[in-house]
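Sequence in, structure out. First:
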Amino acid sequence: MFNKEGIPFFVIVIPFLSIFLISFLAISYSQKLSNNSFELSMNEYKKLYLQNNEQNNNLELFIKNKIDENKVMNSDFTSFMLAVTSVVTLFMAFFSYIMILITKDLVKKYKNEVEEREEELHSLNENLFLKVQNGIEEGKQKDKKILEQAKLARIGSMISMIAHQWRQPLTELSGILMELETATRFKKVDENHILGAIEKSDKMIQYMSNTIDDFRNFYRPDKVKEEFLVSISCKSAINIIGATLKNFNIKLNINIENDKKIYGYPTEFSQVILNILSNAADILVEKSIKNPQIDLNIDTKGILSIITIKDNAGGIPQKNQELIFDPYFSTKDSSKGTGLGLYISKLIIERNMGGELSVYNDDKGAVFKIVVAG
């Protein structure tokens, strides 16, 4: 249908076929008309001549002359039609040549446009691939940065909590040393006094050492999922933050209505509880709430374990509730928070444990609700 240049075949062939066909029909039809007309005329001449003359000699001569004249006319007409056909054919050939050039130019232009489009699409595909790769890499870097910042934030939080945990035993150790110093100066020290002081000091030092072990185990990442009691995981978090709450005179009410085992990462779950308790403590201190308190409730409903942690700090503003779990969003001063604690907590509960972490306000303050299947 198309030649090697991509030009439609009918552009070249159809005009010539049309000219030849029209010429052939025109010549045939004209000759037929002229022969029929000639025969009718001759018949009329014969009738008239026979009516007026009795001899046929002149009639035969007359018919012969007419036949010769008709042949000459047919030959002239055929020559004329052939000449017209040749002229029209040459014109059509020239026309077809022009059409070929025009069509060739259009096809070439179209091919160039297609090639340009293909190059653009190829370039876009390459750019898109690079953009996707860069986006993935940026996402990985962002996640890495978030985790690094979260680690730094946890280290800072851990140091602060260790300081609160150690403040009381350090005070007691200082008191023991002062007591020994006073007894020594007044020469009232004896063996029992010294041994008693050593025993008390050992207990304080052992308590501080256990505190370090608790923090080290608490922030150690879980390797595999396992079954664990919700209450035990919550108490692990409470042991870490208990001294801090006591230091700020924040009352923690624990209500265990129903307890059950859930499947997941116990240390990560404890970190979620710790993050929420720590945020509640921060907002209570920041707002200087009178009689500050935090309520931790553990209950079950069918296969679900439901943990709620609420404070009496007045709640979260409506405009912030949808953003509270976004990374880097924080209502605290930049020196006090990175905005990653609740983001990481939501990832742990929803992505790692298949549960749900949500927040709403009640008449006293914010309520964080954790729902995890057993």
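Second:
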Amino acid sequence: MAETVTTRAGTTTTSPGLLTSLEPLLRDWLPRQRWFAGKGRPVTGFSPVAATDLLPAGGELGLHHVLVRTHEGAAPGDCYQLFVGAREALPPRLAPALIGHATTGPLAGRTLYDALYDARPAGLLLEALRTGARIGALRCERDPAQEIRPGLVPRLGTAEQSNSSVVYGDTFILKLFRRVVPGINPDLELPLALAREGCTRVPPPTAWLRAELGGEAYVLGVLQPYVRGAVDGWELALRELAKGEDFAEEARSLGRATAEVHTALARALPTVTLGHAQLGPLVDGMTERLEAAAQAVPALRPYAPALRTAYTALADLAGEGRTWTAQRAHGDLHLGQCLRSPSGEWTLIDFEGEPARPLAERRMPQPIERDVAGMLRSFDYAAYSADPPVPDWASACRAAYCSGYAEVSGTDPRTDPVLLRAYETDKAVYEVVYEARHRPDWLPVPLSAIRRLASPDPS
């Protein structure tokens, strides 16, 4: 039977009490998490943003919702969302969730762990969303037109990502943002807008978790329908590559799905015109990222002058009076952000944008070529991760994707090669830095694209 959540369960505080128990443990535990954004930067301290007791601390199971800010030297770092469980001892099944054993503060003597691994706390979250609970500063809101059945069995998602997900009975998936900032999160904003437009290519939000703190609103999580039996585009592409199968028809279908989403977003939200004044900062940003990347990765330096022409060509067009339309878009589109259902339909997910970028930047209108470039790079990544690489496979997918896009939108992205090359170059430069820092064995993959983009004919 489902456990009812009431507002009496929680009180929100910003006092350091709970953090006294947590801080010694978080110094070791937090940097080891896949979703921790400060890799390579030492955490020197923490400050509380808010803490809410979801279950009383003195019971058999304590449950605490915590927002905590890291400090790196004298500078404040990021704010992270934690669901902390407290028990006398952990059963073996929860061993991977261990944060540590508290020796100080109000939780002294208790074993603390990531409560998302535990079925009962995860079930409480769904029940709170189902009932529209208000617990301290936490606000659970939902779409009343969608039913949420009680008692769905939760399981923690296993995919490595910058957030955490809990699947409920193959019916819903709850995405919980680990690094949070105040403001409107596009991962809720854009799917809500698409749902109003009747776009079926994106799962409509069923419920969402917010916090009201100090006059600012934080989006903490979004519950959406789970696409049962779906496989993500990256896994599917690698599977077909391994079998030597063609992927062009799937790429064409994915291009149509992308265009449907872009068209619906252009109807739902304002578009703007980009001219010389607006393109200047965009080109400057691309150029600065290239210069910084060339300093960080020596292998990139021989190609930097030729790559820079991708940006100067765009600036020259803008100087001649060319304009472009910008609109809200996905912001971080690649094969891993796409799901193919057993019926063959493609769905786009994860509209958060690139989490490392400021929220205001992620919510800015942009040319659709940015999304297209991300997907074209993803086809390359798949093809060059094969042994041996199969560049013709990528070329066929890239062409099919753009053709499928044109079938819906009426405009083929390849008809604006200067803008597309600039965005693809910017993405490949980012990939070079990322791989050099985190996965050096993968560095040849983006470098193969760098060589192509730096050539006289980068198509």
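Remark: The radius of gyration is 23 Å.
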